[in-house]
Amino acid sequence: MKSIGEKCAVFGIYGKGLDVSRLTFFGLYALQHRGQESSGIASTDGKEIFCHKNAGLVAQVFNEETIKGLPGHIAVGHNRYSTSSGSGIKHAQPVEVEDKSIVLAHNGNLPSVIQLASFLKSRGVVLSNVSDSAMITGALHVLVKEGMEIEKAVEEIFPLMTGSFSILIMTKEKLIALRDSFGIRPLSIARLNGGYVFASETCAFHPIGATYMREVNPGEMVVVDENGLKIKQIAERTQKLDIFEFVYFSRPDSNLLGKSVYGVRKNFGIQLAKEYKINADVVIPVPETAIPVAVGYANASGIPFEMGLIKSRYIHRTFIEPEQHIRDQGVKLKLAPLKEIIENKRVIVIDDSIVRGTTSRQIVKMLFEVGAKEVHFLVSSPPVKFPDFYGIDLPNQGELLAANKTIEEINTHLGSTSLRYLSYEGMIKSTGLDESLFCTSCFTGQYPVDLRERKREVVYLNQAHKAHRYGKI
């Protein structure tokens, strides 16, 4: 249903006496929303590294037999979202080197791999048609084979990794967590029974009984081994968390930069109500992300909140292809309108973002089909006008509706009675944090990490269109 997808989730654990693979399974289960294409877990008992990964959801890839086949006291796990680089088992993680001495799980994306490729070529290693994650793993392996300690190898390769990354690296003795110098993708640490847990989101700690410690800082390397926890700042720290984590990706029960995701989304709704006063009978969210937004808007506006759209909770990735008639139903396969809530009503429908507009258009049409008198479409973020290069599976700029149409034109395209976006200033204000802490590239075209050879993929709007940047007509 969504046109954007988070590239991945990572989870790792070090703990003597813990059933680490089973705990990793439940950690990945809590992070399923960040990727549904494939899942994998690697573990080690100090002598050997074991790995199991496949296409599918966490519960489809693992069972009692596979979990029991992953013994040890260290484990890393990964959920992957299908992106343009490919899908299926070939691209499933964790990435393993040939001699199974290093495995790596990566959330993020390197828009430029020229420096990594040059390093590998200088060492006589030619890797063709592989992911950025495989190149990072290959470069680390080269240095370790030359006799370098894994921590030192990470420090050597770090400057060559141009892009965003929250990475977990496992050897037979160590678990290493690493975050890019801008902290674009999230990564946190928790304690569990004398051991340590790392996860893309804090929502993965509660199900396994882990106690949150703090976030891994941008540019920080955290190493866990038999001697405990070692922390080293290996690059200058400049926090630029991707604000899309608040807008869409993260689970509402997670915390980012000390803020509740649910609370920030509720603030989005309150701010929308301040910016746009609409005469309507009911406020409904597009499940699930927009629910707290709609709650905030309803509370602030005094317009009743209702769940006018019901999401099928079990329409996830399936290996059963729907026949053509079912495919033609589009959004109806995943969302069902409640006629008694919508019929003869002036409806405000709230969603987190509009990318291509295909889903939004179908939702508007569906609401009118069940008898809505008016459909006012509110969006809890500014117009998405620029492509992403840091780990979000966004279409190229030519497919982004707001990069090619004004707000009035998008409203006509959707068929809605009115269309309103949360202002850029309102989005930042709702977080309760300073603008400088965020990467807002999808909205502003300002990229904290140099795009290098991929700069040519970005087209900046002319002055006439810049008036629409912040969602203002």
UniProtKB/TrEMBL annotation:
Coiled coil: none annotated. Residues 8-227 form the Glutamine amidotransferase type-2 domain. The keyword Magnesium applies. GO terms for molecular function: amidophosphoribosyltransferase activity; magnesium ion binding. It comes from the Bacteria. Keywords: Glutamine amidotransferase, Glycosyltransferase, Magnesium, Metal-binding, Purine biosynthesis, Transferase. The active site is at C8. It catalyses: 5-phospho-beta-D-ribosylamine + L-glutamate + diphosphate = 5-phospho-alpha-D-ribose 1-diphosphate + L-glutamine + H2O. Pathway: Purine metabolism; IMP biosynthesis via de novo pathway; N(1)-(5-phospho-D-ribosyl)glycinamide from 5-phospho-alpha-D-ribose 1-diphosphate: step 1/2. Binds 1 Mg(2+) ion per subunit. InterPro entries: GATase_2_dom, Ntn_hydrolases_N, PRTase-like, PRTase_dom, PurF, PurF_N. Its EC number is 2.4.2.14. Its cofactor is Mg(2+). GO terms for biological process: 'de novo' IMP biosynthetic process; purine nucleobase biosynthetic process. Mg(2+) binds at T289, D351, D352. PANTHER family: AMIDOPHOSPHORIBOSYLTRANSFERASE. In the C-terminal section; belongs to the purine/pyrimidine phosphoribosyltransferase family. NCBIfam families: purF. Catalyzes the formation of phosphoribosylamine from phosphoribosylpyrophosphate (PRPP) and glutamine. This is Amidophosphoribosyltransferase. The lineage of its organism: Bacteria, Candidatus Yanofskyibacteriota. The gene is purF.
